[in-house]
Design brief:
Blueprint: E1 2-11, E2 15-18, H1 19-25, E3 27-28, H2 35-40, E4 44-47, H3 54-62, E5 75-79, H4 90-98, E6 104-107, H5 113-126, E7 132-139, E8 148-149, H6 152-158, E9 167-176, E10 181-188, E11 196-197, E12 215-216, H7 218-228, H8 231-240, E13 249-252, H9 257-267, H10 278-281, H11 288-295, E14 303-310, E15 314-321
Parallel strand pairs: 3-8, 5-6, 5-7, 13-14
Antiparallel strand pairs: 1-9, 2-4, 7-9, 10-15, 11-12, 14-15
């Protein structure tokens, strides 16, 4: 028995914020005009309403699925870098809002949260523990962006927050005797965990509001991924005997256009297999790969590749027949 991706849907809040608006909103330190778009290629990002929570973004995405795809869901996994609160698991809040009664739990691994949740869902389906799993995410990084900046150093440290977009996504995985996930591999270099963080809310910094903002070093993060190397992605082709041309879609996590170009060139991915979402949608964190699948043109039986990169750092690849 395989686990097939039976449905994908996304939700993007109505409000959009341009990179020029982001720069104007920053108080104190004045960044160079146009620096955000010039360094990242991002023109727009979506921002949730003040009364929306991460769970609401996930719920909105789930409601955009075909209702028939939800029949028989026997497990819900909420997978996100965001959460409504420390306890309980946000999955409970999502489930209550959807009126479901199945078991639930959260999976958290930065921008690879959804991909790791799909990994867990596939394993549970293959073992027969579950037959239909709903994986959903609600990413709300806008609540952790630092707008009052002291100096250039603090601007650089806060830069990642200006690239992120609020978004929701939902993926249904179901048992299938024929089509489904046929390859997966995951790796991590956890020595790099401190390069990019949102420190507040845990036992290290439980209450200090100063730690409630994104912090990171983009240069060091890039170096960490370069050190990890591309083997995890290239090995997927070697071990399956496939080439990128065999896939209808190669979905790649996207944080900045220069980084994406380097990775695409390194892996030799054909441009016509990519779905470039970054300029119009920003970095949607764990919703990025589902967003690309929902925008891409694919048909039942097509092969898709999901290439994930997340802070921590972690890497993952999943190949599936739709």
């Amino acid at each position: 028995m395989k686990a097939r991706i039976a449905g994908v849907a996304t939700y993007l809040p109505d409000r959009r914020l341009g990179s020029d608006e982001v720069e104007r909103r920053i108080e104190g330190y004045v960044p160079h005009t146009g620096i955000l778009e010039r360094l990242t290629g991002i023109r727009w990002r979506h921002v949730a309403a003040d009364d929306q929570q991460a769970s609401d973004l996930a719920v909105e995405a789930v409601r955009r699925l075909d209702p028939a795809q939800l029949d028989g869901v026997d497990l819900l996994i909420f997978a996100s870098a965001s959460q409504d609160m420390v306890e309980p698991a946000t999955a409970h809040i999502v489930s209550a809002k959807l009126g479901l009664s199945c078991p639930v739990f959260d999976v958290k691994n930065a921008c690879n949260s959804v991909l790791n949740a799909m990994q867990v869902a596939e394993a549970l389906i293959r073992t027969g523990a579950h037959r239909k799993v709903l994986v959903c995410t609600g990413e709300m990084p806008s609540r952790a962006v630092r707008w009052r900046i002291r100096d250039r150093a603090q601007f650089v440290d806060s830069f990642a927050g200006y690239t992120l977009s609020d978004s929701g996504a939902a993926v249904v995985m179901t048992a299938d005797p024929g089509r489904g996930v046929f390859y997966r591999e995951f790796a991590a270099d956890s020595t790099a965990w401190a390069i990019g963080t949102l420190p507040g809310g845990g036992t290290m910094h439980p209450r200090d509001p100063e730690y409630g903002y994104f912090r990171g070093d983009g240069r060091r993060l890039k170096e960490a991924f370069e050190l990890a190397g591309p083997d995890i992605f290239l090995n997927a082709l070697k071990r399956t005997g496939l080439t990128w041309e065999d896939f209808a879609v190669v979905a790649v996590h996207q944080v900045a256009m220069p980084y994406l170009r380097v990775l695409v060139r390194l892996l030799d991915i054909p441009e016509d297999r990519l779905v470039v979402t970054l300029p119009e949608y920003g970095n949607c964190a764990s919703a990025t790969l589902p967003l690309q699948l929902s925008l891409a043109g694919w048909s039942p039986g097509d092969k898709v590749a999901l290439l994930g990169l997340g802070g921590g750092i972690s890497l993952g690849v999943m190949l599936a027949e739709m």
